[in-house]
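Worked example 4.2. Below are the chains of a multi-component assembly; read each line carefully before continuing.
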Amino acid sequence: MGSNLYLGLVHHPIYDKRKEVVATAVTNFDVHDIARCARTFGLGGFFVITPLESQIQLVERIIRHWVEGTGAAYNPTRKESLSRVQVSRSIDEADRTVSDLWKKKVKRVATGAAPHPQSIGFKPLRQLLGDQETPFLILFGTGWGLTWEVKDSSDYVLAPIEGRGYNHLPVRSAVAIILDRLLGDRV
Amino acid sequence: MGSNLYLGLVHHPIYDKRKEVVATAVTNFDVHDIARCARTFGLGGFFVITPLESQIQLVERIIRHWVEGTGAAYNPTRKESLSRVQVSRSIDEADRTVSDLWKKKVKRVATGAAPHPQSIGFKPLRQLLGDQETPFLILFGTGWGLTWEVKDSSDYVLAPIEGRGYNHLPVRSAVAIILDRLLGDRV
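Applying the procedure described above to all two chains together yields the following structure tokens:
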């Protein structure tokens, strides 16, 4: 279970503090932490989504260092996690990569910290993921989150993680919690 | 729920790659991400545990910047999370801070990626935490993990998060998942 789930970390289109649509910069820790979570839960793949040429090159350099470069010998567990990371220029490009591989339409799931009128809970989505014949692409926003257009054009919007009156988890922590809720052992 | 749980991020005593006992350096992202998770789940407090004077000063400077400095106005949600962080020189010092506050013996819980002969599962620990009269201190190791002495002298050792043949989560992700399993809404 999990290999029909792909994760996209979206750097564009993203809201900034003033709710303007921007492209955010890639954070090195996001790539490492999310790659490790994706590997831990057996995901099909992890797409870093950014249209900016400088950021694409940065991510590709990070991956190369740990997968082929001196990093691979220094820390083989990073090689194992980062070898499943790839860069896409847009959400649609990541989606196409998955649908080409599966020869099927991909179900898109958007996430966010704010409630959405038509959201799906963790348990129902966990059950849907049990259908191993259907590929899913779950999208996480950086900055101030995914745009409404991205949410409204997704097949599902996942319910937010409810905090005790505080709703500001780093995307790295949200990914860890959400993947565990969707795919982790229930003990 | 959660306010009787305190978290300690341990930088000494810690194993390094060769299983020698060392003091690790503090990672800025650990402080921020774990502070946000601790705030999200309503923990009683978060101790960064290090005996190194340079590291103590570093953490205190980070906290001051975001709680009192220019950072407080720039990003109030960081002020809110970091105002619950404090530095302790040892596990015992953190433990004493909690027991002085509660006038009670603190139950210690160690965590780690490796299985331990006498571990407690997530569900039983979740139930124990429901006893709001008892303070708990949950310890997370950095580097290559908590020493056996720390584990063996704890009241409980929590079961590891089981990955799909991969057991190398960053401590930041492990904290997020474990706090959610112990205190998160079950939806």
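Take a moment to check your reading of the output against the notes. The two ends of chain A are 17 Å apart (CA to CA). The helical segments of chain A are 28-40, 53-67, 70-74, 76-82, 91-102, 122-129, 148-152, 171-183.
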